[in-house]
Amino acid sequence: MRRHSTANWNRLQLRGSAKRNYPLFEKGKETEQAAKKKKSTEPLKIWSWNVAGLRACVKRGGHQLIRESNADIVSLQETKCAEFPNEINALDEYKYKKLLVSKQSKGGYAGVALLSKEKPVRVDVGIGDADFDEQARYIQAEYPNFFFVVVYVTNAGQKLVNLQKRARFDELLLEKLTALDQRKPVVIGGDMNVAHQEIDLRNPDTNRNKTAGFTDQERDAFTRLLDAGFVDVWRARNPETTGAYTYWSYIGNRFSNNIGWRLDYFVVSQRVFDDVNDCDILKEIRCSDHCPISMRIKFE
């Protein structure tokens, strides 16, 4: 996809991106202890973003926005690169970085990445199907009290040519997530490539069962995921809100006319939904044809 430049990133004011300010004491030891205590009681901040090419996103200042977000965990999709750009490697606050590279098109296709300030207990990759795993679409990170999943769900394609493959991916994803949920709560951040409800896209009537992401099959698969014990965080917190999208095609004036789709989601285990502090769509950030989404959650 073609990208357009966006100027003057310094003007962007991200909701919830202010740096943490710890109380100061005369003794350095007291300052450090106060900082640790405050940090341990703060919610975990998570970003998810389909960057539509990580190198291109970095050229538009995407790495600066990630740093300014002060997110503890960052999920990136459609990275389309064989290695992290230097600007991402320079984000030293993220002690753990994992880039999953597609074996197709020399890494210039699909791909996902995880940036984490805390090193996970364990990281696994792949959804369990050789074809999908060659495309680098799934990272699973285990933390002490939850699993975090980075996912870039396969697209059904033009004229729905890959709809059967999409059904297989949805089936495997459901199996994975329900198995994890038996062990610990699960947090998913990614591009699910589906507009679940009619209010999740601008033109439902002209796209129903004609366009990838809005077929009955894909929507029903997402419903089955929710019925299995998961919650679409943003929609559950904003059940009647319309016109809230995360993707706008570059064709025409889709963004300025807000002709978009909500394809990017945080999905969590039902039992931790009440632990969510907030969930936002960061529409003002235009480094990609998708905008980031942000969530804060404090596991009680």
TrEMBL record:
<feature type="binding site">
    <location>
        <position position="50"/>
    </location>
    <ligand>
        <name>Mg(2+)</name>
    </ligand>
</feature>
<dbReference type="GO" id="GO:0003677">
    <property type="term" value="F:DNA binding"/>
</dbReference>
<keyword id="KW-0479">Metal-binding</keyword>
<feature type="domain" description="Endonuclease/exonuclease/phosphatase">
    <location>
        <begin position="48"/>
        <end position="290"/>
    </location>
</feature>
<feature type="binding site">
    <location>
        <position position="191"/>
    </location>
    <ligand>
        <name>Mg(2+)</name>
    </ligand>
</feature>
<dbReference type="GO" id="GO:0008081">
    <property type="term" value="F:phosphoric diester hydrolase activity"/>
</dbReference>
<dbReference type="InterPro" id="IPR005135">
    <property type="entry name" value="Endo/exonuclease/phosphatase"/>
</dbReference>
<dbReference type="GO" id="GO:0006284">
    <property type="term" value="P:base-excision repair"/>
</dbReference>
<comment type="similarity">
    <text>Belongs to the DNA repair enzymes AP/ExoA family.</text>
</comment>
<feature type="site" description="Important for catalytic activity">
    <location>
        <position position="264"/>
    </location>
</feature>
<keyword id="KW-0234">DNA repair</keyword>
<dbReference type="GO" id="GO:0008311">
    <property type="term" value="F:double-stranded DNA 3'-5' DNA exonuclease activity"/>
</dbReference>
<feature type="binding site">
    <location>
        <position position="193"/>
    </location>
    <ligand>
        <name>Mg(2+)</name>
    </ligand>
</feature>
<keyword id="KW-0227">DNA damage</keyword>
<feature type="binding site">
    <location>
        <position position="289"/>
    </location>
    <ligand>
        <name>Mg(2+)</name>
    </ligand>
</feature>
<keyword id="KW-0464">Manganese</keyword>
<dbReference type="InterPro" id="IPR020847">
    <property type="entry name" value="AP_endonuclease_F1_BS"/>
</dbReference>
<feature type="active site" description="Proton donor/acceptor">
    <location>
        <position position="191"/>
    </location>
</feature>
<feature type="binding site">
    <location>
        <position position="78"/>
    </location>
    <ligand>
        <name>Mg(2+)</name>
    </ligand>
</feature>
<feature type="active site" description="Proton acceptor">
    <location>
        <position position="290"/>
    </location>
</feature>
<dbReference type="GO" id="GO:0003906">
    <property type="term" value="F:DNA-(apurinic or apyrimidinic site) endonuclease activity"/>
</dbReference>
<keyword id="KW-0460">Magnesium</keyword>
<feature type="site" description="Transition state stabilizer">
    <location>
        <position position="193"/>
    </location>
</feature>
<dbReference type="InterPro" id="IPR020848">
    <property type="entry name" value="AP_endonuclease_F1_CS"/>
</dbReference>
<feature type="site" description="Interaction with DNA substrate">
    <location>
        <position position="290"/>
    </location>
</feature>
<protein>
    <recommendedName>
        <fullName>exodeoxyribonuclease III</fullName>
        <ecNumber>3.1.11.2</ecNumber>
    </recommendedName>
</protein>
<dbReference type="Pfam" id="PF03372">
    <property type="entry name" value="Exo_endo_phos"/>
</dbReference>
<feature type="binding site">
    <location>
        <position position="290"/>
    </location>
    <ligand>
        <name>Mg(2+)</name>
    </ligand>
</feature>
<dbReference type="GO" id="GO:0046872">
    <property type="term" value="F:metal ion binding"/>
</dbReference>
<dbReference type="InterPro" id="IPR004808">
    <property type="entry name" value="AP_endonuc_1"/>
</dbReference>
<keyword id="KW-0378">Hydrolase</keyword>
<feature type="active site">
    <location>
        <position position="152"/>
    </location>
</feature>
<dbReference type="InterPro" id="IPR036691">
    <property type="entry name" value="Endo/exonu/phosph_ase_sf"/>
</dbReference>
<dbReference type="GO" id="GO:0005634">
    <property type="term" value="C:nucleus"/>
</dbReference>
